[in-house]
TrEMBL record:
All copies of domain ABC transporter, residue ranges: 25-254
SUPFAM superfamilies: P-loop containing nucleoside triphosphate hydrolases (SSF52540)
Pfam family, one: ABC_tran
Region (Disordered): 1-22
CDD domains named in the record: ABC_DR_subfamily_A
Family annotation (SMART domains): AAA
Bias-annotated ranges (Basic and acidic residues): 8-21
Official protein name in the record: ABC transporter ATP-binding protein
Cross-referenced InterPro entries: AAA+_ATPase, ABC_transporter-like_ATP-bd, ABC_transporter-like_CS, P-loop_NTPase
Species classification: Bacteria, Pseudomonadati, Pseudomonadota, Gammaproteobacteria, Lysobacterales
Gene Ontology terms, MF aspect: ATP binding
Record keywords: ATP-binding, Nucleotide-binding
Length: 331
C-alpha cells in the first residue's frame, strides 16, 4: 500500500530563495576530525530532490558521521553544508522539523503501543491534535498496523518494528529523510517491503538519503556515493558507475578453480578474485584484459577459459576501495 500523501500536512512558508528546484543537499569540502583521526575528509555532495540517494561503504567509512553533520547533530571541522536551503549548523534548528532521521537501532518506546509511539512522536514534532489524528490514522493504514494499534512495540518482530520506526520518522511529513543502515537487523522479505515504501515516499516528493552496506540495496538507489576512510571515492548512478568498469571484469572457467584463484591473486593488475560456484569473477585494474589473464594462467600451468562479463556494483565497490590504507576508522 502506498505511503500517505505528504500534502495532507501544511508547512510553514519558506523564504523565497529556498527554491524547490535546488538540490536537497549540497556539501562542499566537508570534513570532521576527532583528534588526530580524519573521520570525514573533503567530501563534496549534491543530492537531487525526490531521489533515493545511497551511501555505500564499509563499516567505519564515515557514513554515519557524514549523516550526523548533514542533520546538524555534529559540527563539521571543515567545509560548508546547505540542506533544503538552510545553512548547517547555523540554521539546524529551523531545519529540524523538515527532516526525518531513522537509525538501525529503531528509536521506539518498547513499553508504548504502536499508536502511543506515533502519538508521542507527532506531539514532539509539534503537530496539532486534529492533524495528529488524521496523520496517524493514515500511517496506521498505510503501514499495516490497523490490527496492531494496541500492541506494545517491544513485542513486535524486527520487520514490524522497522515499519513502525519508519512511520514515526515521517509522522511530520518531512521533505528529507535520513536513514542510517535501517535494514541491518531485519530479514530479506522485510527489507524488500521497506524499500518499496521508500520508493512510495520518493514518488510523493520526499528526498531520501540512506546508508547501507548491502549491494542489492545500493543498486536500487537513483544515485550512489561510495565512501572509504572518510573520502568520497565514487559518485553516480549505478549504471554510470558500472559502465565505467567495462572491460575490467572477467570470468574464468578452470578445471581447478581454487588453484586458478590462487594463481590469479598473484597476477599483476588483479584487484580481486571471487569464486562464484565453479567459476571465478576477476576484477582488474585499468588496462587489464582477457589476453593478459589467459597468458598468466598458462604460465602457471593452468588450462582455463577467460571471457569478458558484465560488471556489477560489487565490482565498482572493490575498485573504488582498492587503494585503502586501512587507518583507524570512525563510524
Amino acid at each position: 500500500m502506498n505511503a500517505p500523501d505528504h500534502a495532507a500536512l501544511p508547512r510553514e512558508d519558506r523564504p523565497a530563495d529556498r527554491s524547490a528546484d535546488r538540490p536537497a543537499i549540497v556539501a562542499r569540502g566537508l570534513g570532521k576530525q576527532f583528534g588526530a583521526l580524519k573521520a570525514v575528509d573533503g567530501v563534496d555532495l549534491r543530492v537531487p530532490r525526490a531521489n533515493v540517494y545511497g551511501f555505500l561503504g564499509p563499516n567505519g567509512s564515515g557514513k554515519s558521521t557524514t549523516i550526523r553533520m548533514l542533520c546538524g547533530l555534529l559540527t563539521p571541522t571543515a567545509g560548508e553544508i546547505e540542506v533544503l536551503g538552510f545553512r548547517i549548523p547555523e540554521e539546524a534548528e529551523a531545519l529540524r522539523r523538515r527532516i526525518g532521521y531513522m537509525t538501525q537501532k529503531f528509536s521506539l518506546y518498547e513499553d508504548l503501543t504502536v499508536r502511543e509511539n506515533l502519538e508521542f512522536l507527532a506531539e514532539v514534532q509539534g503537530l496539532k491534535r486534529p492533524q495528529r489524528k488524521v496523520r496517524i490514522d493514515a500511517l496506521i493504514e498505510a503501514y499495516d498496523f490497523a490490527d496492531r494499534q494496541k500492541q506494545l512495540a517491544g513485542t513486535m518482530s524486527g520487520g514490524q518494528k522497522q515499519r513502525l520506526a519508519l512511520a514515526g520518522a515521517i509522522v511530520h511529513a518531512p521533505e528529507l529523510l535520513f536513514l542510517d543502515e535501517p535494514t541491518s537487523a531485519v530479514d530479506p522479505e522485510s527489507r524488500r517491503d521497506f524499500w518499496e515504501k521508500l520508493f512510495d515516499l520518493a514518488d510523493a516528493g520526499t528526498t531520501i538519503l540512506v546508508s547501507t552496506h548491502y549491494m542489492d540495496e545500493a543498486e536500487r538507489c537513483h544515485r550512489i556515493a561510495i565512501l572509504d576512510t572518510g573520502r568520497l571515492v565514487a559518485d553516480g548512478t549505478p549504471a554510470e558507475l558500472t559502465r565505467a568498469l567495462a572491460g575490467r571484469t572477467l570470468g574464468v572457467r578452470a578445471p581447478e578453480p581454487r588453484r586458478a584463484q590462487s594463481a590469479l591473486h598473484r597476477a599483476p593488475g588483479v584487484l580481486s578474485v571471487a569464486q562464484i560456484g565453479n567459476e571465478l569473477r576477476v576484477l582488474t585494474a585499468a588496462g587489464g584484459d582477457a589476453a593478459q589473464l589467459q597468458a598468466w594462467l598458462r604460465q602457471a600451468g593452468i588450462d582455463g577459459e577467460v571471457m569478458d562479463i558484465e560488471p556489477n556494483l560489487e565490482d565498482v565497490f572493490v575498485s573504488a576501495t582498492s587503494h585503502r590504507t586501512d587507518p583507524a576508522r570512525a563510524a
